[in-house]
Amino acid sequence: MSDTDYLLAALIMGGVTFGLRAFPFVARGVIAHHHRIQVLGRRLPVAMMVLLTLYAVGVHNWSSPADGRDQLIAVAVVAVLQLWRRQALTSILAGTLVYMALVNDWLGL
Amino acid sequence: MTSKRGLVSLTLPVMMGYLPLGAVFGVLWVDAGLTWYWAPLMSVLVYAGAMQYLAVGLLAAGIGWIDLAVATLLVNFRHLFYGLSLYHLLPKGVIGRQYFIFGITDETYSLLSASGRVKDSETALWVVLLNQGYWVLGTLAGMVLARGLPPGLQGLDFALTALFTVLAVEQIRAKKDWGAVALGVVAAAVAGVLVSDYFLLAASIMLVLVLLAWPEPNTREKMTHV
């Protein structure tokens, strides 16, 4: 990728994100009163985060499930830790360490 | 406004999160072979954690611009609602106002909306600035760290999966919307089988369409009265 490509990528991501963050300040009424947008706002983030987790785990790439077991274990560690302690950073770091220990075979399992 | 020391103690929880999470972004970016100096530039220009993590893989794989825009829209869609409760903190000046809006991340939003400790727009603006500062500093630290990592080390990219897992757990905990959870799983399965090349795009469009068409209790009630 050239510098122009990176700049374009940054402007696209930054622009869309800024647009979303700015929208309620310019069109307060639309969000506050539009029923469908309310429904979308309540339900989409739940579905989206589940989808993104599955995407990150690699469900779109079923043909080569190289480390399915390791991913599953590490995701479970993150989920349980997050439910228990509710400290995002701890859950992320612990889960990543567990995953790295498994894929790099640090424990000889 | 709050004193400088007060500002640091106010933003300390965000600092504890943004320094290491920014560092992970820096490591992933360098590790993926992307041009190194664009990592801090992304943290300055984009400033959206989950999307920046996701972008590492997408950019390395050569994603199209429209796909990138749609992915950003869907990943950050929740930000559409944050401004509603921050109206009273909007700075008066044009530049300050634009920057304040630019900087409303998940963590900044929860700090500004929930704590009740921030009451004036000047303090709010400082909170936004400090938080982004932590994020950029973390990114820079990560770029340095990436050079010291042993070659052949695998699995750091699991941080992205872990971040999404945490966000998913928090969403489920807050909303307990099992229908939406099921919808996410079904959309992933359908898109995974049918269109794995455009997985994210196809699956998220599916989510939006189904949610827009789904009869809600509220609407159903109205319809039975008609």
Automatic annotation (TrEMBL), chain A:
<dbReference type="InterPro" id="IPR008407">
    <property type="entry name" value="Brnchd-chn_aa_trnsp_AzlD"/>
</dbReference>
<keyword id="KW-0472">Membrane</keyword>
<keyword id="KW-0812">Transmembrane</keyword>
<keyword id="KW-1133">Transmembrane helix</keyword>
<dbReference type="Pfam" id="PF05437">
    <property type="entry name" value="AzlD"/>
</dbReference>
<feature type="transmembrane region" description="Helical">
    <location>
        <begin position="6"/>
        <end position="23"/>
    </location>
</feature>
<protein>
    <submittedName>
        <fullName>Branched-chain amino acid transport</fullName>
    </submittedName>
</protein>
<feature type="transmembrane region" description="Helical">
    <location>
        <begin position="44"/>
        <end position="62"/>
    </location>
</feature>
From TrEMBL, chain B:
<dbReference type="GO" id="GO:1903785">
    <property type="term" value="P:L-valine transmembrane transport"/>
</dbReference>
<comment type="similarity">
    <text>Belongs to the AzlC family.</text>
</comment>
<dbReference type="InterPro" id="IPR011606">
    <property type="entry name" value="Brnchd-chn_aa_trnsp_permease"/>
</dbReference>
<feature type="transmembrane region" description="Helical">
    <location>
        <begin position="124"/>
        <end position="146"/>
    </location>
</feature>
<dbReference type="Pfam" id="PF03591">
    <property type="entry name" value="AzlC"/>
</dbReference>
<feature type="transmembrane region" description="Helical">
    <location>
        <begin position="50"/>
        <end position="75"/>
    </location>
</feature>
<keyword id="KW-0472">Membrane</keyword>
<feature type="transmembrane region" description="Helical">
    <location>
        <begin position="181"/>
        <end position="214"/>
    </location>
</feature>
<keyword id="KW-1133">Transmembrane helix</keyword>
<keyword id="KW-0813">Transport</keyword>
<feature type="transmembrane region" description="Helical">
    <location>
        <begin position="7"/>
        <end position="30"/>
    </location>
</feature>
<dbReference type="GO" id="GO:0005886">
    <property type="term" value="C:plasma membrane"/>
</dbReference>
<keyword id="KW-0812">Transmembrane</keyword>
<keyword id="KW-1003">Cell membrane</keyword>
<protein>
    <submittedName>
        <fullName>Branched-chain amino acid transporter AzlC</fullName>
    </submittedName>
</protein>
